[in-house]
Amino acid sequence: MNIIEFKEDDFEILESWIKSKSECLIWAGPDMSWPLKKEEITDTSSKKYFLEYDKEKIAYIELVKIKTSRFRLCRILVKQEFRKRSFGEIIIDLAINKSIKDLSIFSFELNVYKDNVVAISCYKKLGFQITSEYEFYENSKEKQSDIKHYLYKMILDKENI
User: Fold this and answer.
1) What is the domain range of residue 59?
2) pLDDT digits (tens, 9 = 90+) for 76-122
3) Which of 17, 99, 129, 136 is surrounded by the most beta carbons within 10 Å?
């Protein structure tokens, strides 16, 4: 099992894992369009990785530099048939360790939907702590109203551990 860099040719693999607009919203928040557009993934400066297991790509993560010393973990996804087997925890841990080793980044944050208890539990196991709560409104053209979502911001500072 190892972490490998995402390549532009890998887009179709990632795209095949996201089956609906609601899955896309949960995975990427309101800034990603549905259906996915290749350039929204490939035309960013974020670090992108797959977790490879038995020569198959089974999980994905992005790390966005938000400060000179901090990454935001985002768009974490495990392929459906590999969920509930700790692969999310594994890819996050490997990405964090790679960032520490290769880039000397020791501070990490992420946003998670407040009702995503499985993800929150995973992040807490890795040492992330909830630091704040906030809300945002999704503009839903189909329902012609705004839908309110609640999120937690979670932070992990490996330098002070």
Assistant:
1) 2-160
2) 999 999 999 999 999 999 999 999 999 999 999 999 989 999 999 99
3) 99
In whole angstroms, what is the distance from residue 87 CA to residue 77 CA? 9
Question: What digits encode the pLDDT tens for the residues 9-25?
Answer: 999 999 999 999 888 88
* Total structural domains within the chain: 1
**Exposure string over 92-107, b if 16+ CB within 10 A, otherwise e:** bebbbebbeeeeebbb
Would you put residue 60 in left (φ > 0), alpha (ψ -120 to 50) or beta? beta
